[in-house]
Every structure is written in C-alpha cells, then in structure tokens.
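Entry for iron/sulfur cluster complex. Fields follow.
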Amino acid sequence: MKLRGLRLDSHKSRPLERPIRVVPPPATLVLALDQGSGEDALPVVRPGDSVRTGSVVAAASGAAAALHSPVSGTVREIAVRPTPRGASRCIVIENDGRDDPVAPAAPVDWRAMEGTALIEHVAAAGTAGLGGAAFPSATKLALARAADAELLLLNGAECEPWICCDAALMRERAADVVLGAQVMLAASGAQRCLIAIEDDKPEAIAAIQSAARAATDERIEVRVLPAVFPLGAEGPLVAAVTGREVPHDGWPPQVGVVCQNVGTAAAVARLVQDGRPVTTRIVTVTGSGVKQPANVEACIGTPVGELVAACGGYTAEGARRIAGGSLTGRSLAGDDVPVTKGVNCILLATDADLPARAAEMPCIRCGDCATVCPAGLLPQQLHVAARSDDSAALARFGLSACIECGCCDYVCPSAIPLTVRFRAARERQHLADLERRRAREAKARYERHQRRLAEQAEAEREAFDDARRRARGPDSGGR
Ligand code: SF4
Ligand code: SF4
C-alpha cells in the first residue's frame, strides 16, 4: 500500500552510542495527575501522608491510569505545577532515600490467570501507553477482548527523527518485550502478535528476532517497515501492517487489532516478573543542546533538569526544551517540568536542530499539505475552519482524525503553523466539551437534589398526616 508521510533525516545515532543510563531518584518528585492522556487521576493521598515505593497515590479515572510513588517518603503538597502538557495538579513527594517498598518483589503466575484477571492486574499497576499517549493499557486490552480482536500489534516503529528510547529498549531488553507480548496475548485473547519496527533500527530488529526465537512462540513475529514519518502513529501503523483503516473516532479493536507500545510490553513483563507497578520509564535526552545525548531510565516525576545533568549538562549554545520530537513535541516551561509516563524524549534543540521557520505567509493553495497528510485530510481547509473557530466545519473536515503529526507544517511553503492551530482548536473543543459535560452533570445533580427534597417533603407530610390521624383516634376517619 502507498505510505503517506515523510522520509526524514535520522538523528538517533548519538544517543544509541551508549547503553541506557539509570538516573538516581531525585530528592523531590512531582507526579502530575495528568500523565499525558489529557485526564487527571484521582489523588488518594493528602499532604503529610507517608508513602512507600509502589504505593498508589492516585486512582485511575477515565483515560488516566493509576499512579504510584516511585520512592518512599512524604507527600509535601498537591498543587498545580508546569507539566509537559502545560500545567496539571501534581502530587509532590519528598524522597526519604530509604526506598521502602509497599510489598516485597514477587513474580506473578500469569499463565494460571484468566484474561480478565490479568487485565485487572495490568490496570492496578498503572500501566499506560509509554509511546506517548499514556492511555490506560488495560482499557485497550479489555476493548480488544470484548471485540475479539485477533492481532496484537506491538509498536516499535518510533518514527520521530530524534526519538530512540524504544530502539534502545528493544536492543537491550528484547526478552522483556517478548514476554510482555505473551502476557498481553493472554490478556487480550488475540491469537498472534506482530512487532513492527522500522528498517532504520537493525540492532533492535536483530535483538527482537533473537528473543522471539528463544521464546519458541510461533505466534510472535517481527514485521519490518520502511522508516516513514508518522508510521509510528496508531492509525497509520495499523493501516501499513494490515491494510485496514481504523475509523475516525474509532478504535483499532474495531478492525480486529489491539496496539500497544514495545515499552508498555516491557513494563508488563516487569509487572509479572516482580510485581512492580510502572514508576520509571526510558527517555531519550538528545539534541545539540546537551553534552552527552543518551537514553536514560528515570523515575516518573523526575525534573527534566536532572535528566540533562545525568547527560553531562547543557552545551554552551542556548537550547529550547521540547518534550517529544521535533515534529510532534511541545515546548517546556523549564528544568522543573517533571517526566510523565507520556514523555519519551527531551529534545534540547538549538536553531541548527530545527527546520528554519520563515515568517508566516498566506496559503497559496498548493495542496502539498494534503499530499503528505497520513490521515487523508485537507489541512488547508481545516486551517480556515480553525482560524474562524467554526466547530461545524472542523468536524466536517475531520479535526478528530488529525494525529497532530506535523507533516503538513513541514512541507508548507507558506510556513503556516498548521499543527499548532489544529492542536489549539482541539483543546478549545475539549474544554468546551468538558464545560458542557460539567454543566450536564451539575444540572443532573441539581435535579436529583430537588427530587430528594420533594421526596423528603412528601415523606414528612405523610408522617405528619399519620401522626395527626393517630392522635385523633380510630374514629377520626379522613377528617
Ligand atoms: S492535518 Fe493533522 S494528520 Fe494531517 S498532516 Fe497535518 S498534523 Fe498530520
Ligand atoms: S501546504 Fe501550506 S500553502 Fe500549500 S495548501 Fe497547504 S496550507 Fe496552503
């Protein structure tokens, strides 16, 4: 099939020169309630509470997975702090340095468990999509089970030109990825697993192929794909591997597929090996602004500045901090912004690392943006709708199908920041939806309250009538 997208120069080699480096847990951790999915988990601790390593500090809610403390210590506060997505309420924990676990490490006998029990286990561990979306993995597995999805598609494509945390993980921890695939096959009920990797990662391909052979599990295969951006996004990946189109506003299980990231698979393997929840992740720290680009494993909640320090610190040139890659990333407010489950890369970018941006000019209707759009959209039309905040037109031109990949920006000769405007339009819509939902819930609460008051008044009236009848005696009749 024809792959829409861009072939971009890769910048992955420098961080891959070194093995994954472990960053020590910091003195203070900032756990964002929104770990990248756009929704907040619900805090179950208060300032002053003691926590242990692996304690649940926030419960799952909607699109937010449960959150666990990576260290033992004390909750200092719950407050709004800058995060990779802008700002979120965060649980701030002072690390006591004792690493006192909530439970001793113990393997899980996953082969003896039912699929639904396994899914509950995955949910309880706070497992979320480590490819960037941070969506709860258990929800995807449950949807796959309900839809009888036949294929587990593990995403090791990693198409952004600077990001290579999955490449490092597959190279060094391939057996974990394969074990995680086996657990997720059992949980989802899928019959086979394809691990999709782009052809610019030969070491990762060799390592995963070797681990799959060692596991002697014929259900697991490696599928090598061309390195085309944004093949790592879920919809384009499903289409490239299976030829099936995931419907706009739909889910891959609707076309028989459940997609999970290879990092998520490794997290599931850790869970069954020793019962540990998700409290760390691998992050690529790269760009001309950092002295020793590397892939690091850091606790969730570690400030970005500590990752940079673990990679030798900043170079003399001033660097822009970006969470994610050069095409899909978001600028960060500063060194204090914490790592979340959704942060796969910190790009310390100098001007030389980013495409030169000319001043924005009017659209010349060249159609280049439509030619590269992997979602088959008309970005120039979406842009007109976004500028006038025309929600009907945004829906008509398929804003919900935009994966914010940045391909349209990249080719636009008029230097129009299309993706930023689409993201802003989507956030405005999200806020408007949230407001509408809150208004509906408030109205329903008010109506329930009014009903309760009316029922209470009715009960009191009946009790009063009864009491009056009894006081008048058995001959009082209805008077
Ligand atoms: S419209 Fe959205 S999906 Fe299409 S190229 Fe632009 S950012 Fe990517
Ligand atoms: S690429 Fe830019 S100039 Fe060309 S049609 Fe799209 S928005 Fe207009």
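NOTE: The chain has three domains: 15-281, 283-353, 361-479.
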